[in-house]
Design brief:
mainly alpha; 4 helices
Length: 153
């Protein structure tokens, strides 16, 4: 029975390391999809639609943006979008959606492009952090579980 508890404790440490690494990877995925969202929004504005509601409806049906779940139930009257990204990026997302549709198409395209440039920088930061820390978190989980095992045995 004692060993079962140790095994479960070890598995929880290892799972915590993998979970934290997965969250870092999710930030990379979200930032990538936000950049793709900007590209699609710009296309919509340049060529066909310039009504914000229609653009968001089309984006919410886009399969390449499946991790952007806030698009499914966004309220344009009360925008409060929260993602797993950093606070600054969440503020930028909210700023984009609060201001999109309030000006002419050229200004909206400039706003989208500025947001996209910020997300490109954020994506690079997330990817660099993921590359340098994801294996560290997994290793920490494994070595933490070994340390617990040595202490308990």
């Amino acid at each position: 029975m004692k060993y079962l508890g140790i095994i479960l404790l070890n598995l929880s440490w290892i799972a915590a390391g993998f979970n934290h690494s997965r969250r870092l990877k999710r930030k990379c995925i979200l930032s990538n999809e936000l950049i793709e969202m900007c590209n699609l929004m710009a296309i919509e504005l340049e060529f066909s639609v310039n009504e914000t509601g229609k653009i968001i409806k089309r984006l919410s049906n886009e399969t390449t943006l499946s991790h952007l779940t806030f698009l499914q139930n966004i309220s344009l009257e009360n925008i409060d979008i929260k993602t797993e990204l950093d606070k600054e990026d969440n503020e930028r997302i909210n700023f984009l959606f609060k201001n999109i549709g309030k000006t002419d198409s050229a200004s909206m395209l400039n706003l989208i492009e500025a947001f996209k440039q910020n997300m490109l920088v954020s994506r690079k930061n997330y990817e660099d952090y993921y590359k340098s820390h994801s294996k560290l978190y997994i290793a920490f989980g494994m070595f933490g579980s070994l340390a617990v095992t040595l202490v308990l045995i």
